[in-house]
């Protein structure tokens, strides 16, 4: 049932009686009365039902259309409710010509109550009992009869209908019919399997979990096509799905549904014999057995399930072709790991069960939304009644199911282990899954009793070349392209032009799967198949050779991509490298354990630096690059390249000490090799470090040397990069005119080169300059353009910067509501990437938002958290700005002493950095402190001094601060005679900066 489920704690537990109901002929009724009339009838039907259920103690578990699923704490109450409903339905004044006949089934058991509701075979038993009946008929199981029959309502009797085999149920069910005086008592024979001739096995005692969508799709295919092949890997649940669908369709075929099991058959010429045996057909003199079988089936309307065809695929295909050609009423469902390839065949690839990402699971209740985790929980509960998924173990259960690729067999085997292992140990042991998952049922097919047996069965059916390619494909960590398969899988006995056909065969045999991506197709192995095949590869003795080819293939790809990441096609190349990232990692890991691959590993890490930087893999990329930079056996040029990349990534993380040391090392090595491009990039990182530390003179010296080197060598990209950094340095020095000129120069170079990443940086930096100049409209447009480019690039690090920058514009404009989510998204990205620099900025800005909302405790917590990061980074300008914000909060809290302390700290730092805008902000704060203390003349002087500084740096007060600023000045003006205020203001305006700073620092001494 699919409607909203009631709270689990309200449902009865222990011995529970289930009641299932639905309206007979609901489709015909809908066609008779139309949509509106049907809705009206359903409302009346639901009302009658719910009134009776509530009166008799029923708990509605779910509804779906006209069907109800209700649980009762006792069997007598359930029986009374069913009788009451039937009487109410019969007595109700339905519209003229309309008859509402409801069938009902009751069963009593002790179901488990899992995160998704009731689980266990008792639920399915009650549903099957209902589906066996007819409108106005109530059927009881033997258990319900025993517990509630004696308490039947007055006049009601129970009729023994005997035993019946129902769909999905392992044993026959003894059924009873409720006879209600005045209502119909005679009905056709029950819709049980006994009505149809069939040899379907009694389905497992365990319930059939999930697969609702797959069952519906397969049923629809069977109605349209006479041969439907269910194809999938070993353990995917093909047989169980086929049998379930066949049982569901049993009443659609006059002569029933039949299973022909081919797994025990070991020779092609015995396939016809296996089918003939099922139908009791014998060979006669002068008539071949196949002809006898065709003659028997020719006029019969039935469904045949040909199960486990893969080892006899040609013989099975011939049998199916003959039956479909000569027996017009016969339909066939085949299960196989390889398509039959016969005319008219419709192939349905049985997917793995749906699995959640462990990171998306926060509670046990969420597991009920996925078939794989539902299966694990139900089978684990059957294995050990004490088992229950908790919020703590829910992500582990999700991880187990995902690592097992959603394969039902593997999940059931893993769930059986809860008897002896907690789920966290099961998860840890999955690296050796073929030893762990061996506890299959002894009564199942041999190739379903262990996970290894299931994969061995598929592997044994391959020809030699297919086996060799499958093992070689196991070196791929993720999905791979045909070109990659040819490059890595060919050689030593497999020609490159043979790979496509071999790969197609492996796809046809459900050992390799395809993924459609736009106009491309990629291939992948399930993790289980990969682990098995990698073991076989190790046994073959050619593992090292294949892993080396894999390394060299991905090294060539990375080196081909590297220059493209600075050009007009960088987005396509970035996306392409993202697809291959798992295999880059795998290549680096393998090479990391071998002394003979150090050069290739160092080259690969160096070539991936810009990809790692642009896509935000800062920690990962830095670790590989630092490791590569330390390998003394490789050439100085390779070590320089690795150190330069590691230094740049360390800078992005805010680790200025490491960034400086690594960049200095790369600079020395590049100078030794006279590599102008490398020298320029190393100087750029060193200049950035100096700039963020507030050492602007050193920054300019380093950057001007870098840009001169790049210009002489004709490296336009390096020129654009360093000119941009020079522009940022000028912006930090409040020289906005020069900053704008430099940033526009870099912008023009990026446009010429077609580098969208550089373009986004220059646009964003120009947006910052526009903001400081008070041109918020232009600033917003520039940041929005930059943000769009960064989203297109997937540049998560730069995206965090753009989000923060756009947020600050909105903050200055007083639009805190739109600014906050931008800061929050930026902070989340920075924390994910390990970017302390921009995380600190986001925290500070969120603190300002909280201050505007008068949430002072949150404001202090946010700003102080950011301030701790600024101190760790040694970013003095940001420390000064944070002190200014803390001063604002202290003033708002009425603590002017603490406010003065914060403003003086910020003032001291800003003065040391010669940051006039920072000084202006702190002088404004000191002026407000003086006003609170009644020192109105001093306040007027400091307001005048701060206003003069803002004018000097051409940075007007943000819109969001103007109201409070104006109120503060108005209060000071009102407290002083006009001439006194004017004189004090003029003194402050004319006061030298050093004098203003000194006076402010001594205000309360």
How would you describe this structure to a colleague?
- The protein is α/β, with parallel strands linked by helices.
- The protein folds into six domains: 8-191, Alpha-Beta Plaits; 212-349, P-loop containing nucleotide triphosphate hydrolases (Rossmann fold, 3-Layer(aba) Sandwich), CATH 3.40.50.300; 358-452, no CATH class; 464-541, Arc Repressor Mutant, subunit A, CATH 1.10.10; 542-674, Tetratricopeptide repeat domain (Serine Threonine Protein Phosphatase 5, Tetratricopeptide repeat); 875-1001, Tetratricopeptide repeat domain (Serine Threonine Protein Phosphatase 5, Tetratricopeptide repeat, Alpha Horseshoe), CATH 1.25.40.10.
- 60% of the residues lie in helices and 9% in strands.
- It has 43 helices and 16 strands.
- Strands 2-3-1-4-7-9-8 form a seven-stranded mixed β-sheet. A five-stranded parallel β-sheet has the order 11-12-13-10-14, with helices on both faces.
- Strand 5 (112-114) and strand 6 form a beta hairpin.
- The model is unreliable at 440-449 (pLDDT under 50).
Walk me through the topology.
Blueprint: E1 16-23, H1 26-55, E2 59-64, E3 67-72, H2 75-91, E4 102-109, E5 112-114, E6 117-119, H3 121-131, E7 138-141, H4 142-148, E8 157-164, E9 173-179, H5 212-224, E10 227-231, H6 238-248, E11 257-261, H7 271-279, H8 289-297, E12 302-307, H9 313-326, E13 330-336, E14 345-349, H10 371-383, H11 394-403, H12 408-416, H13 423-428, H14 433-436, H15 451-460, H16 464-473, H17 482-489, H18 499-508, E15 513-517, E16 520-524, H19 527-540, H20 543-561, H21 570-579, H22 581-592, H23 598-614, H24 618-629, H25 636-652, H26 656-673, H27 676-692, H28 696-713, H29 716-732, H30 736-753, H31 756-772, H32 776-793, H33 796-812, H34 816-833, H35 836-852, H36 856-873, H37 876-892, H38 896-913, H39 916-932, H40 936-952, H41 959-975, H42 978-990, H43 993-1001
Parallel strand pairs: 4-7, 10-13, 10-14, 11-12, 12-13
Antiparallel strand pairs: 1-3, 1-4, 2-3, 5-6, 7-9, 8-9, 15-16
